[in-house]
Design goal:
The protein contains 21 helices and 18 strands. The chain is an alpha/beta fold and 579 residues long. The protein folds into 3 domains: 128 residues, no CATH class; 155 residues, 2-Layer Sandwich (Alpha-Beta Plaits), CATH 3.30.70.270; 253 residues, Alpha-Beta Barrel (TIM Barrel), CATH 3.20.20. Strands 10-11-13-14-15-16-17-18 form an 8-stranded mixed beta barrel, surrounded by 6 helices. The chain starts with a helix and ends with a helix. The structure holds ligand C2E and magnesium ion (MG) (2 copies). One magnesium ion binds next to strand 15.
């Protein structure tokens, strides 16, 4: 219901509020306006009474004519008129012009019809007051226009024409004062630097302008169902303020609308761009009760989701994200999970292009004390940072090898188990013993086991890494290079790695069908891998058109949600047994 109401109101001046400055702070109430009216009429009545009166009154024994008070009342009534014009702008000006306009013919009638010549100074006072009111009013109009111009410049971002962060900050301050609920969304374009570096600043600016224009249009339409304001923070960072929503899902839905319009193809100078962004948000008053903290929280969530670098680009702030606390809390959870053995695994199937099972990749999963599942994107980096990744890996190794060994024995299937090994783990002196232990204990033929390493292994101590890899190979275990294309290893290093499988990172597969160049890029990786005697698997395949393209360019295997999500052990077992 609230969304519907918001849609109706959508086109009112939400954006205008910001651009024109927030309502004037200097406000005179209508009570003062009416009081001025009363004062004006009282003084005018007294003026009429005293001006035609010939009686006198006594001051310190001296008789003073009552008529001399006419000047005092006349000045008072004129002051009322000037105050109207000064404080009530257009309304005040119109009021005073009407009053003076009525007064003028009455005065003329007094002089020319009734021959009361004492009213002649009153005519001049009337004319001068009209001139003064006009001058004050027009001067004020000019000044206001000038001030508005200056203010507009101060609150507008020059490049995009959107409100800038100061305007946005000010507007949010107003909302917090009114205790109005809203969500602050910080947006950062992904990989924008690459556009700037490769295509130049001019193209970068055009991209920013085009993005701003898309979002401005969306904010001014009723499409999102909430009342939104978009502003530019700086560089490739934007701010979105979402108002008049019912619950968190409304905010998410609105953000998704902004994400969708951003991701539509953008063509500049005949070049196509596919943009994406990271969105982090925090809500007032749910997450923080002041604008500054909201900014910090929304930014924290935005950087976090950027770092995770997954397929989801939107994150709501949670207290757990506060860096130090987050690491400490995650460390505590990890240690508890290791102790209680609640780190377990899922198996994601890998297939050849004829949909025949090649094997599984074991993926770590963790359940915390409350039974909540924590994603590896969160706990693996912490485990690496605090130096317990080998323990996490090992728990996955042991548990998955146990099932896998049993499956091989029971079914006789010729499939592969891929294990992710972190660099720190692989470099440990007892890594080989650990692998040997797995093969012996669970009776797995070495050729059915595979160790996944990432390109980053080549960054530090490449020689030591190569020695380890060679020893694994000598044992007959296969080597896969994971997330290929995301690291920075040189081809010369890569050619020295005796890998069996090259895993093309999901980010390339996502882009593959979006342009001819991206498709050729993936085709080149496939050919290169095959030239180096490796088989090639594509990660993160999600739709049929991707499978088609991968078949066309000769990729050997696929791993992706389209044919198989990571499965719990029992389901993987059923899959192998054909149940
Ligand atoms: P990875 O080794 O590249 O694993 C593939 C990731 O891509 C998995 O995410 C998987 O669920 C996801 N994925 C596969 N197909 C699709 C798809 O079609 N669409 C989408 N959106 N995602 C897909 P997950 O399980 O979250 O793992 C993330 C990363 O965590 C892994 O990336 C790996 O680097 C690390 N990791 C997982 N388990 C372990 C482990 O036991 N040890 C170590 N050292 N790292 C692990
Ligand atoms: Mg992997
Ligand atoms: Mg991978």
């Amino acid at each position: 219901m609230k969304r519907r109401e918001a849609m109706d109101k959508k086109n009112d001046q939400s954006m205008e509020d910001v651009m024109n400055g927030l309502n004037d702070r200097l406000k005179f109430s209508w009570v003062t306006y009416v009081l001025l009216f009363v004062l004006y009429f009282v003084t005018t009545i007294f003026l009429t009474i005293v001006s035609d009166n010939n009686s006198t009154f006594n001051v310190f024994g001296n008789p003073i004519p009552l008529r001399t008070l006419a000047g005092v009342f006349s000045s008072l009534s004129n002051i009322c008129i000037i105050f109207w014009v000064l404080f009530y702008k257009k309304t005040g000006f119109i009021t005073s012009m009407i009053i003076l306009g009525i007064q003028f013919p009455l005065l003329l009638r007094k002089i020319f019809v009734l021959h009361v010549y004492s009213s002649i100074p009153g005519v001049f006072t009337n004319i001068f007051t009209i001139v003064a009111a006009i001058i004050i009013y027009y001067n004020d109009v000019r000044l206001s226009k000038y001030q508005q111009g200056i203010r507009k410049q101060a609150v507008t971002d020059r490049l995009t024409g959107l409100p800038n962060r100061f305007a946005c900050y000010e507007m949010m301050e107003e909302l917090t004062k009114k205790k109005e609920e809203f969500a602050l969304v910080m947006i950062d374009l992904n990989n924008f630097r690459e556009i700037n570096d490769s295509m130049g600043f001019n193209v970068g600016n055009e991209v920013l302008k085009a993005v701003a224009e898309r979002w401005r249009k969306l904010a001014n339409s009723s499409e999102t169902g909430t009342r939104d304001i978009v502003a530019r923070q700086s560089g490739d960072e934007f701010i979105l303020v979402v108002r008049e929503y019912l619950d968190d899902s409304d905010v998410l839905q609105t953000i998704r609308c902004y994400e969708r319009v951003l991701e539509e193809k953008l063509t500049i100078d005949e070049c196509d761009y596919y943009l994406a962004a990271s969105f982090g948000y925090a809500e007032f008053p749910l997450d923080a009760d002041n604008v500054e903290t909201l900014f910090t929280y929304a930014n924290t969530a935005m950087y976090e989701i950027k770092k995770i670098n997954g397929s989801n680009h939107i994150m709501h702030f949670t207290k757990e994200l506060l860096r130090e606390e987050h690491t400490l809390e995650m460390e505590r959870k990890l240690r508890a999970a290791l102790e209680n053995s609640t780190i377990y695994f899922n198996l994601q199937p890998q297939y050849n292009m004829d949909h025949k099972l090649r094997g599984f990749e074991a993926l770590a999963r963790m359940r915390d004390e409350s039974g909540q599942i924590v994603s590896p994107g969160e706990f693996i980096p912490v485990a690496e940072k605090i130096g317990i990744i080998d323990k996490v890996d090992s728990m996955v190794f042991v548990k998955s090898a146990e099932l896998f060994g049993r499956l091989l024995k029971e079914t006789g299937a010729d499939i592969t188990l891929s294990l992710n090994a972190s660099v720190k783990h692989l470099m440990k002196s007892d890594f080989m013993d650990e692998l040997k232990g797995l093969l012996d204990t669970y009776e797995i033929p070495a050729g059915n086991l595979e160790v996944e390493i990432t390109e980053s292994i080549m960054l530090d101590s490449a020689d030591k890494a190569l020695a380890c890899i060679n020893r694994i190979k000598e044992m007959g275990i296969k080597i896969a290079i994971d997330d290929f294309g995301t690291g920075y290893s040189s081809l010369s290093y890569l050619s020295k790695v005796p890998a069996d499988l090259l895993k093309i990172d999901k980010s390339f597969i996502d882009e593959m069908n979006k342009s001819d160049a991206s498709k050729k890029y993936v085709a080149a990786i496939v050919s290169m891998g095959q030239i180096m005697n490796m088989e090639v698997i594509s990660e993160g395949v999600e739709d049929d058109s991707q499978i088609e393209t991968l078949r066309e360019i000769g990729c050997d295997y696929i791993q992706g949600f389209i044919w198989g999500r990571p499965l719990p052990a029992e389901e993987a077992e059923k899959l192998v047994k054909g149940l």
